[in-house]
């Protein structure tokens, strides 16, 4: 049996060996899920809701353990890991209210009665990335379970520990055996089987655009439903009339949170030319103040990158021709450390257009509103973005003009489980957060009852 050795990215020590499932193991898990799903779907909605609340309670009782696992496995600062564990609990609690609210419609027709029902799909395969293992997993499995489905969760090979623990907590909370299973393994084995197995009726994938395209193509063979949340190269747009001091002081946290390993990171910083120098002065002070260090330290804001291999990938973007404006600080010695880095490249250059997925931000000047919108949209991606201006009308115009799924004005916060989430262009397809999320895991059945 193959396995993966989990390494603590902060100090290089071995955390745990995790066994990988093979094809036969995966097929057996799918069969168990299909059996469990039929039982789960027949339960009264109130009983499914009660089970999800018990699952949320189990997570709540394990918050510190989950946080410690995430910090050791992913290098997230401990305060961030605690928030993430609490977020999983909150997502479960939120969607526990859904089973009793999957309400159909009565449609006026001649000669009888027409009604719709929301029927669960069956088995759903959720494939998660390594950057936010717990939170992104919960966005898939909580609404899918609420809608009456079984869920198979394949965590990223690098970061399986909190997902494995969530699977254990689900069983401890009393969810039926086989209903929610965590399947560690290679994407080419477990993930591909989600795509090809006819019993898996939907695949939810968060990760790179390149892999997402292959999954989408594979699912097309069976006309299988798919949700894709993919890459980003989002813009943080600062206009001259904005509160420049606030925009500069908060800009590091729009891109360097989670060491820049965030598809929603505003990794392109667009600043109106007339305030460019003033902004950069404040931005440099803010970057120097970012606390990068031991993720178990409560005062740490940014931890290491997830692996040494990923650090090499990020470093490869900083070729000799890339102008570095300034850097922050990071520890030396063992660990996948990388200092926050600010570059000032030419428009259209690789580092200004491709996703780095690390603590690197490209700063680009623009002339006016039209130029800002054109520059923000000059990418294959369209996931996120921020706009800084005191002019409300401009904020609305630019938000409408920027091709992005999750935007904010005078803030960097735009993603919540209570609101839709999704991308434009090559950043993905599907929006499965917010109150209607469970509906994306159902088929709508239309039934006509003749009255004559």
Beta strand count: 20
Indicate the percent of residues in helices. Answer: 25-40%
Secondary-structure class: alpha/beta
Strand fraction equals 15-25%
**Main beta sheet, described?**
7 strands, mixed
Q: Any idea what the radius of gyration is?
A: 23 Å
What order do the strands of the largest sheet run in, or round the barrel if closed?
Answer: 12-13-14-11-10-16-17
Low-confidence stretches: none
What are the defining features of this structure?
alpha/beta; 21% strand; 20 strands; 15 helices; seven-stranded mixed sheet; globular; 37% helix; 452 residues
What's the arrangement of secondary structure elements?
Blueprint lengths: L2 E5 L6 E6 L3 H20 L2 H16 L2 H12 L3 H18 L10 E2 L4 E9 L2 E5 L5 H14 L3 E5 L6 H12 L7 E3 L4 H10 L3 E7 L2 H12 L4 E5 L5 E4 L5 H7 L1 H4 L12 E5 L3 H13 L19 H8 L8 E4 L13 E3 L6 H4 L6 E7 L2 H8 L4 E2 L1 E5 L3 H10 L4 E4 L14 E2 L2 E2 L12 E9 L2
Parallel strand pairs: 5-6, 5-8, 6-7, 8-9, 10-11, 10-16, 11-14, 13-14, 16-17
Antiparallel strand pairs: 1-2, 3-4, 4-20, 9-19, 12-13, 15-18
Helix pairs in contact: 2-4, 3-4, 3-6, 4-5, 9-11
